[in-house]
Prior knowledge:
CATH superfamily of the largest domain: Endonuclease Chain A
Number of strands: 12
CATH architecture of the largest domain: 2-Layer Sandwich
Number of helices: 8
Amino acid sequence: MFQWRTGEPPIRIIEKSTKVWGNVIEVIEDAREELVLVSPYNEYSVPLDEALKKAAEKGIPITAVCREEQKNKEDAHFKWLMSIGADVYLCRRLHAKIYYNESTAIVTSMNLLKSSATDSKEFGFVIKDATLREEIRNYVRTELLSHSKQVAPRQPTAPKPPAARRPKAEPRQSLDRGFCIRCREGIPTIRNIRCAARTSTLGTSTKTLTTPRSTATAAGKSGRRPLPSRSAHPATRKQQARSEERTWFRVVA
């Protein structure tokens, strides 16, 4: 039989769900050295998450043990706990509900769900006795934490190094002159050759070469049979262009 050393009993029964919820918040607010929350199902409401934020700001170590089977459903909840600095552990088939700090422990049927406080019939005990609290702490360490997996916080990805700047490209060569990609020396282009073919001379003569179209016009004036005009068919136009280029190359050579 427990001996009451003060006016407060070592075990106190909580019969109403709202009182269980209120006592859990008191355990969080009164924590000074440690805070452990064992709850299979979690959905923090405004008063509960505000109390946890204040405890985290005080630098109190927070440990949360949750049900492993709820990992996918409560992933956002786990991330929020880790964002305030809490250590999150996942335990398979967890069903116990225990909440304690360095001076008070609560063993109850209530999960940390808002619906548990408002819609469910919950029951619990508030334990002040040091011997019982130590037994509860040992149970959590040996039976729960030792068989749980800690959710490791995601490491921030290292920023990518800045991309090396490409050297400025040399100014583009004029369309009237090409260049060698190895020695960068200029080379004549087809356009230059065509222009040279039109304006070059043969031998010592200063006669200006004319294009086939102009030649055809001159031939027509002299009474000779004019050359046929360019065909509208693409294949025929390509053949005529190639023959013109071959003629110009021969003239330049």
